[in-house]
Amino acid sequence: xxxxxxxxxxxxxxxxxxxxxxxxxxxxxxxxxxxxxxxxxxxxxxxxxxxxxxxxxxxxxxxxxxxxxxxxxxxxxxxxxxxxxxxxxxxxxxxxxxxxxxxxxxxxxxxxxxxxxxxxxxxxxxxxxxxxxxxxxxxxxxxxxxxxxxxxxxxxxxxxxxxxxxxxxxxxxxxxxxxxxxxxxxxxxxxxxxxxxx
Length: 198
Description:
Blueprint lengths: L2 E10 L2 E10 L10 E7 L6 E4 L1 H9 L3 E2 L1 H9 L2 H13 L4 H102 L1
Parallel strand pairs: 1-5
Antiparallel strand pairs: 1-2, 2-3, 3-4
Helix pairs in contact: 1-3, 3-4
């Protein structure tokens, strides 16, 4: 029975979630499987890959063939490295302690890389938030400055209109006073004319 290590799709539409399974090559993609080895969630950043290393190595040693994507995931979690090191132990090129030490050192290095990527992503996200906040503050300050400028313009226009109205009122009062001053001598002259006529 040819056994393949492959992905089995779960999750919902647009949000895939995969199981890494050892299954008969003749079975349907999402059909019957022999053993669930791990999970793969591509929706997170970085993607979450959780694999039972010992079980995966056991299947590889029994002749299971991984698909291309499954091979990438197994390599990402160090399954292929452990399988390779176990081959060296069987040949006598390495002791089991050396193989375990190499594998643990590789795991630590890999975890450090993953953590560095997570830190970089959180830092980039924090920087993006800070830039967005600064841009928003700048827009708010500009809006407040524009509102103040409009208020000052309105106040200046109102003051100018008031001054103009006062000037017009003063101009209207001055001719009226002149007219009354001109009318008063005319009336006096008319009064003087009337007694002379008598």
